[in-house]
Amino acid sequence: MARPMKASEITPKETYLRRREFLAAAAGAVAALAAGLDNDLSAQGGGARLAIAKRAATTSDPPTPYKAVTTYNNFYEFGTDKGDPVHNAGSFKPKPWSVAVEGACGKPGSYALEDILKPHPLEERIYRHRCVEGWSMVVPWVGFPLADLLKRFEPAGNAKFVEFVTVQRPAEMPGQRARFFSALAWPYVEGLRIDEAMHPLALMAVGLYGEELPNQNGAPLRLVVPWKYGFKSAKSIATIRFVEKQPVSSWMLSYPQAYGFYANVNPEVDHPNWSQSVEARLPSFFKNTKTQMFNGYGDQVAAMYKSMDLRKNY
């Protein structure tokens, strides 16, 4: 007897994608229903599907279409144009992978990707994101709390900051091969204050839309820090370092007048070259969405900065 056809075999892919986005963005019983349907959904991008333990939405805004999320990116290791990463990341090899853990912690060492992932049930979280260039998107990330990972390494009392260093592979990353001019110094370096890194919203992402991260989105491990501008969310992380002094990030070296250490979304502080008061929500390019302080996450994170001048500490 012929087997029954699955819905994913007869429903157009785009229809299924929008249905999944709607379900994932809903709360309560609808979110539980989405979890039950997950195994029946066809993969949007061909990547391996991930087992998701729970889902949460931090916004009612609909997720940005998968195609926009995976084809319009800043990932200068693969080129400076927004379309460069998806075109140039095909030869990048995210597996096997290991992460070096260094600095002021009780358990330094080299950890294989499998060892990093093993103890952490995966969550799907739908976050808003704001790029300093004025565009934004809503992404269903898959990952686990960054704090859960960092605590495993037993940070010392003098570890005031966490530095993240991304991979340097010029043979696989054409943006790192420039001889006379490079957009940034490599490898890419970013950092968070330890309380920021331990905040419940900070995520170590391994996937999006239920699948493993595509190369152009930061495979196999990337930060997701939704109340900060996108450049804080370092991709393809190779080193985690616990340090006492504030790290000097790559963009701080490249353009300190525009890119400070904190990078909190603040519509009242303009970039030297443009306003930050409004944004374009992809796939639209019209700047008709008002930018929110801390990207709309102020209720959760503002207390960490109550004693700071956020015009000076940009």
Write the layout of secondary structure elements.
Layout: H1 7-10, H2 13-25, H3 29-37, E1 54-57, H4 66-71, H5 84-88, E2 98-103, E3 109-112, H6 113-117, E4 123-130, E5 135-145, H7 146-152, E6 161-166, E7 189-193, H8 194-197, E8 203-208, E9 211-212, E10 222-224, E11 237-243, H9 250-254, E12 278-281, E13 287-290, H10 298-301
Parallel strand pairs: 1-4, 2-11, 5-12
Antiparallel strand pairs: 2-3, 4-5, 5-8, 6-7, 6-11, 8-9, 8-10, 12-13
Helix pairs in contact: 2-3
Q: Could you explain how this protein is built, in words?
A:
The structure is a single chain. The chain has about 325 residues and is α+β, with helices and mostly antiparallel strands. It folds into two domains: about 1-40, no CATH class; about 50-305, Oxidoreductase, molybdopterin-binding domain (Sulfite Oxidase, Chain A, domain 2). The protein contains ten helices and 13 strands. The protein has helices spanning about 5-10, 15-25, 30-35, 65-70, 85-90, 115, 145-150, 195, 250-255, 300, and strands at about 55, 100-105, 110, 125-130, 135-145, 160-165, 190-195, 205-210, 210, 220-225, 235-245, 280, 285-290. The strands form two sheets. Strands 1, 4, 5, 8, 9, 10, 12 and 13 form an eight-stranded mixed beta sheet that branches. A five-stranded mixed beta sheet has the order 3-2-11-6-7. A hairpin with a 5-residue loop joins strand 12 and strand 13 (about 285-290). It is globular, with a radius of gyration of 19 Å. Mean pLDDT is about 90; it is low at about 1-45.
